[in-house]
Design a protein that fits this description.
By secondary structure, the protein is of the alpha/beta class. The protein contains ten helices and 23 strands.
Length: 504
């Protein structure tokens, strides 16, 4: 049976070539493809991005210490350590597993590990053994492998300014003593912005090269099971537009690779489409569904894939930190409007063979999957949950979409031999379109009456917790034939009867 499309015979012919049962395999991704970050400063407690609901408190607030170098400290808010034993947090995180939990971020570059009555010289914060044991326990409870990075500030350097592994060894030894392991690690967080990340004054690509020459053989010997990721660069491929007042010298990823070598098990990078309004970003919610905004993730992946091909050909790609915008996310990062970006990014990067995509964050600031105060799911959490439920590890070629405002992705249906999961994202705010599917399916459509709101509906019914329990995720039966894609909606189609040979 053929797919037909109501718009035009030519489109019908195009789609007929990619019927669910005939969609060819493109690539596979890691089982832990969809992952998340918990910032190191969340674990230790400290000053992290102030939520927009607190932004009025910025007015007239005195400067306070804390946060990356060169940034207005009033952009941050003091918070206690995250409670990783919280039953709701664990239940909701586990529902996204298996995953990776990356515990890193800018603050990790200057975090001291150990017991200390006060922060030692050369560091910006302290991670206690009890706090790190909490991370190890959490990772086991939610089936999330730990990804991290190491301190690189002045406190871990010798008299010549070269990185020393003393702190890293204590950190690794403690992890093992707690019954945990580090699955993968970057040397430092975002070396392209080393100055903002607490590196010594004048730190450059040559200094990075000297450090990596010490780090790599150390980690290979001390923790041979740990994958080395690198370089973990950010800010290239599209202009982030660094905020005014930041006199930062941005290092180039190509120079870091040339000086630091390429002894990586996977090539890692970070991506944000821009900086948030906290940092004077210019993006607007009106542009959040535009092709230009959504395509930025593809442009940056292509940029870093080019560097990978030049310096480390054949190595898998990992996106170890991402969100709608740097500096804690934009105000609409916590709304349904950002779910289009979130799911498009997963779909597009899976097609490109990126193996892991770690969203920033699980539950902090405005880009968190969960509200940091209530731990209630935000729209992106529900999107993540549906991705986990339906999209398996084999990415398929979904073929042409029915209109230019529709993004179409297909994977083997998780847990279904021969089944196909189809993800259709309609970014047109006004017009519906029709997708014709030649076999019956179960439809799961996410929509919202208010795009910049916290409520999201599944097939017209609000998704919400019952206590700490997730609701049943129920589909609507669709007969073979036309499936309507409503304006500004996201639809998963579970096609168990596709009989796709790539999904056996």
């Amino acid at each position: 049976m053929k797919i037909t499309v109501l718009l035009a015979a030519s489109a019908a012919a195009c789609l007929a070539q990619t019927a669910p049962g005939a969609m060819p395999r493109l690539t596979t991704v890691e089982e832990r493809f969809q992952s998340f970050n918990i910032e190191m400063v969340e674990v230790t407690g400290g000053r992290f991005w102030r939520p927009y609901r607190e932004v009025a408190k910025l007015l007239g607030a005195p400067a306070a210490p804390g946060g990356p170098a060169g940034m207005d400290p009033n952009l941050y808010m003091q918070r206690p350590p995250i409670d990783l034993t919280n039953a709701r947090l664990r239940k909701l995180a586990a529902a996204l597993g298996p995953a990776c939990v990356r515990v890193s971020g800018t603050w990790a570059n200057s975090t001291y590990y150990g017991e200390a009555a006060q922060t030692p010289a050369g560091f910006g914060g302290v991670l206690t053994p009890a706090e790190w044991k909490g991370v190890v326990d959490f990772s086991r409870a939610v089936n999330a492998k730990i990804v991290t990075s190491f301190a690189t500030s002045a406190g871990v350097r010798d008299g010549s300014g070269v990185w020393t592994p003393t702190q890293a060894k204590a950190f690794l030894d403690a992890t093992k003593s707690f019954g945990g392991s580090i699955a993968a690690a970057e040397f430092m967080n975002e070396p392209t912005f080393a100055a903002m990340g607490g590196a010594p004054k004048g730190y450059d690509a040559a200094a990075y090269g000297r450090d990596v020459a010490v780090f790599t053989p150390f980690l290979r010997k001390a923790s041979p099971e740990t994958k080395i990721l690198g370089p973990g660069s950010v800010g290239e491929g599209v202009a982030l537009g660094p905020p005014s007042g930041m006199a930062l010298m941005m290092l180039k990823g190509e120079e870091l690779l040339a000086k630091g070598g390429v002894d990586f098990d996977a090539f890692s990078y970070h991506f944000y489409g821009g900086v948030s309004k906290r940092c004077q970003g210019k993006e607007t919610p009106e542009a959040a569904l535009s092709a230009e905004w959504l395509s930025r993730t593809d442009r940056v992946e292509a940029f870093y894939a080019g560097l990978r091909d030049k310096f480390a050909p054949g190595k898998p790609m990992w996106l170890t930190e991402t969100g709608d915008a740097a500096c804690g996310g934009n105000p609409w990062g916590a709304t349904f409007l950002d779910s289009f970006r979130y799911l498009h990014q997963l779909g597009s990067l899976a097609r490109r063979g990126v193996q892991v995509v770690a969203h920033n964050t699980l539950a902090a600031s405005d880009y968190g999957l969960l509200d940091e105060q209530t731990l209630q799911p935000r729209p992106n959490y529900w999107s993540a949950l549906l991705w986990r439920k339906f999209m398996g590890t084999t990415a398929l070629d979904a073929g042409a979409a029915p209109s230019e405002n529709v993004y179409l992705y297909a994977h083997c249906l998780r847990g279904s031999k021969g089944g196909v999961a189809l993800l259709a994202i309609n970014t047109d705010r006004a017009a519906a379109t029709t997708l014709n599917v030649p076999v019956k399916s179960e439809r799961y459509t996410l929509s919202a009456a208010k795009l910049e709101g916290s409520r999201v509906d599944l097939n017209g019914t609000e998704l919400q917790l019952s206590g700490d329990n997730l609701p049943a995720i129920k589909g609507a039966a669709e007969k073979a034939g036309a499936v309507k894609l409503a304006p500004a909606s996201i639809t998963f189609l579970a096609i168990a009867g596709a009989k796709n040979p790539s999904c056996q």
